[in-house]
Design a protein that fits this description.
Elements lengths: L1 E6 L4 H14 L3 E7 L18 E7 L2 E10 L4 H12 L3 E5 L2 H9 L8 E2 L5 H8 L1 H8 L5 H10 L4 H15 L5 E2 L2 H19 L5 E6 L3 H5 L6 H8 L8 E6 L2 H4 L12 H9 L4 H15 L6 H17 L7 H11 L5 H13 L14 H12 L3 H5 L8 E4 L3 H15 L5 E4 L10 E6 L4 H10 L6 H14 L4 H13 L6 H14 L3 H15 L1 H4 L5 H21 L5 H21 L2 H16 L5 H13 L5 H11 L6 H11 L5 H5 L1 H13 L2 H16 L3 H12 L14 H15 L6
Parallel strand pairs: 1-8, 2-5, 2-8
Antiparallel strand pairs: 3-4, 3-9, 6-7, 10-12, 11-12
Helix pairs in contact: 1-2, 1-12, 4-5, 5-6, 8-10, 12-16, 13-14, 13-16, 14-15, 15-16, 17-19, 19-21, 22-23, 22-24, 23-26, 24-26, 24-27, 26-28, 27-29, 28-29, 29-30, 29-31, 31-34
Length: 749
């Protein structure tokens, strides 16, 4: 004989009730609604390192996007049934349709039909047939079916009566003629019945069938389903190869809002219900008080007592037999938070959803990519970070001159390419600045990262191979030069030299097709920065240099024309890029490239129609690089401040020329005098027009610089009337004693 135990997946009350019913009935075999091809992985159930939440992963090794996850928590009835069979020493069978067939069905050209209705009923009946549980919950006055099921079945005391009531209710909902199930559901139920008949043939006398409540009517009376019909339905099904393994899971991912359709809204709350079915409301509110005290918030025993009374009163007003998590959260909001929702967010995250993560034994085999990743973690000495034993708030510094740290850097950058942000790169501080160090902030290793690795397994069996193939796949469809350059940098940092050739070719194609000087100018800084990693990362950056040699002349030729007749917004874009481009050329430190760039800046400075902001910054750059004599800079300043130029244009030229520092005015009094004379001759209305730009320019100077310029403006300073090239012996005498003291032993004469 067999007995059907219709349960709710991840129902703590169902798990408790199922355990009591199994202990009372004493079956000699347990059949569980799990795909048959996961049965080989069930041997790990008794291993002490297999800690829930954990999930069975079934996947097609030839097509890794075909994967199915079957999560378990400690309060899952299936998990408890597996442990019961293990403890009793009785066989346990996975009785559901193998995923080998399901994957083949879902991959077939003709998609499986969805849920169908035999006729067009009235709207209310249609809603019930589409989602029967939600319809019943609505009739009972609940917002969601999970809360309704919890209050109706999870806390009911009579186990046998509940299982019988569930069977009766599901039979009524599935009565023939109202709802036609999908082909996949019919195949699954036919396979379950076939498994039950096989267990009977093997001589088992007391067969416990643990299945989702919805399937219980289709398994209760086997005489209604002739074996020949089930066999005919299952005959000729296509199949694919599958593999099965265990992976860690988390309450975050188990929660309904994470996207898992059969998840639960409140994993942490359900764990409490399973472990402490008595006085669960009081226990939960005590945990709330403890959590708030840890966060240095006010929470006392009196708060707990008041919240318990309020939650019980809310449940009574709503005619509910027990106090649920909804009433408890409302009571916590009113009593502990005084109506402030901020503490409730913390409570919900920690004590309703929870941050629990599972664990699987080290011997459980995963996909090749995951196994290679774990080997790379050991090789890179990142085992502490992988196990969460590192200091969470302390970044890890990697010195690229150390082979182990270099391997770690390569691994982390490859993971970023694969979309696994286990660690995030941080800006390097001044103390460790340079190309030899990196700072990484590690995150906890979560099931989401494992799932992403599994998804990326389709690109290769090793982290290096998968990252290489995936980045080349992205490159083929990339049409943005700047984004492609960003990916080029990722490739060099991840040490994927095989990708450099194809990416360089693609960069050359895009560079040849691009006539936009702005886009080409954007490309210079990333390429120059990439060269920094050539020796440090032991990668060949020759291709980058060749690409720069192609792009730089095109930028320099097109730059003067591109800087003419611009509005303010595009001019400011060019302004930033000119500064970055100048740094990039300086980083190259090549004579030919520097001369080419300086000639382009000179043409921009002197071209008629160049935006004054850009003419000003080019003048400043050339003066700083000693490509302009101070007298020539003074001439350009005088021309920019002449009455022929408008006051706004003159102010914009000054903004570019004085960018970054006021020291130029402080140490070249002639320039200060020109500026001062110009301002003194401006009519009031013109001055008001130029004032916003001037204020913006001077606001970027440091406070000491602004203070010294203020002294000059008041006429209180000692502004020397020296020429721009002159030498002031009086000023030199002021520093001579200090220089002698620093250098020691310099004769006085």
């Amino acid at each position: 004989m067999h007995k059907i135990f219709g349960i709710r997946h991840h129902g703590p009350g169902s798990a408790q009730r199922l355990l009591r019913a199994l202990e009372q009935w004493q079956p000699d075999v347990v059949l569980i609604e799990l795909p048959e091809d996961c049965e080989s992985a069930l041997k790990w159930i008794s291993h002490e390192d297999l800690q829930p939440p954990a999930a069975l992963l079934l996947y097609n090794p030839q097509q890794l996007q075909q994967a199915s996850f079957l999560p378990f928590a400690v309060f899952s009835p299936e998990w408890q049934a597996l442990h019961y069979a293990q403890n009793q020493g009785i066989p346990v069978r996975a009785m559901d349709l193998p995923m080998a067939h399901t994957f083949a069905l879902r991959d077939s050209a003709s998609a499986l039909p969805q849920l169908q209705l035999s006729e067009s009923p009235d709207p209310e009946m249609g809603q019930m047939l589409r989602d029967p549980m939600h319809h019943l919950a609505t009739l009972a006055g609940y917002d969601d079916s999970e809360r309704w099921w919890e209050h109706t079945f999870e806390t009911y005391s009579d186990d046998n009566a509940v299982f019988e009531a569930i069977l009766e209710m599901m039979t009524a909902l599935r009565q023939e003629g109202l709802r036609l199930e999908s082909t996949e559901t019919l195949l699954r139920e036919a396979f379950m019945r076939k498994t039950m008949r096989l267990a009977q043939k093997e001589g088992f006398q007391r067969i416990a069938v643990v299945c989702g409540a919805w399937h219980s009517p289709a398994l209760h009376d086997l005489s209604l389903y002739p074996p020949k019909n089930d066999n005919a339905l299952l005959r000729g099904l296509k199949k694919v190869k599958t593999r099965c393994t265990w992976i860690p899971w988390s309450y975050q991912r188990l929660a309904f809002q994470s996207g898992y359709a059969a998840g639960v809204l409140s994993p942490s709350w359900y764990e409490l219900l399973f472990q402490h079915p008595e006085q669960h409301g009081m226990r939960w509110l005590i945990r709330v008080a403890q959590l708030l005290r840890e966060k240095h918030l006010d929470a006392s025993a009196a708060h707990v007592q008041e919240a318990v009374r309020l939650a019980d009163a809310l449940a009574a007003l709503r005619h509910r037999a027990t106090t649920g998590i909804g009433e408890l959260e409302e009571a916590a909001l009113a009593v502990f938070g005084a109506g402030d929702p901020a503490p409730l967010k913390l409570i919900h995250q920690e004590l309703v959803v929870g941050n629990v993560q599972g664990n699987v034994p080290a011997g459980v085999s995963g996909i090749p990519l995951q196994e290679d990743f774990e080997a790379c973690v050991k090789s890179a000495s990142l085992s502490k970070e992988y196990k969460g034993l590192h200091k969470k708030d302390e970044p890890k510094k990697l010195d690229m001159r150390t082979p182990g740290n270099l391997r770690a850097s390569h691994l982390l950058h490859r993971l970023l390419i694969l979309g696994v942000p286990w660690a995030s790169p941080l800006a390097v501080s001044g103390k460790v600045k340079g190309g030899f160090h990196e700072l990484w902030q590690f995150n906890d290793w979560t099931p989401e990262f494992i799932i992403r690795l599994i998804e990326m397994g389709m690109w290769g069996n090793t982290v290096e191979e998968a990252a290489l193939r995936y980045i080349l796949h992205l490159v083929q469809s990339e049409d943005s030069l700047s984004l492609l350059l960003s990916r080029f940098g990722e490739v060099l940092k991840a040490d994927l030299p095989a990708a450099i050739g194809p990416m360089t070719k693609r960069l050359q194609e895009l560079g040849a097709q691009t006539r936009d000087v702005l886009g080409l100018l954007e490309a210079l800084p990333p390429l120059a920065n990439i060269l920094r990693y050539g020796n440090t990362r032991q990668t060949d950056a020759l291709a980058v240099r060749e690409l720069l040699d192609q792009l730089l002349p095109r930028v320099c030729i097109g730059l003067p024309a591109a800087c003419r007749q611009l509005d303010e917004e595009p001019a400011r874009q060019f302004f930033s890029l000119l500064l970055e481009g100048n740094r990039a050329v300086a980083l190259l430190n090549e004579k030919e490239a520097t001369e080419l760039w300086n000639d382009a800046l000179t043409q921009v400075m002197r071209s008629v129609g160049t935006h004054p902001l850009l003419a000003g910054i080019c003048t400043r750059i050339l003066l700083d690089k000693k490509q302009l004599e101070p007298e020539e800079a003074g001439t350009e300043l005088s021309a920019a401040l002449s009455r022929a130029a408008g006051a706004t244009e003159a102010a914009e030229w000054l903004e570019g020329f004085l960018h970054g520092s006021g020291q130029l005015l402080i140490h070249t009094p002639a320039l200060w005098q020109m500026l001062n004379d110009w301002l003194g001759t401006l009519p009031y209305e013109v001055f008001r027009e130029a004032l916003p730009v001037l204020r913006r320019t001077f606001s970027k100077f440091t406070p000491p610089e602004r203070q010294e310029l203020l002294v000059f403006a008041k006429g209180e300073g000692t502004v020397k009337k020296a020429s721009l090239n002159g030498f002031d012996p009086e000023r030199a005498k002021m520093v001579t004693p200090i220089v002698r003291q620093l250098l020691h032993g310099i004769p006085q004469n």
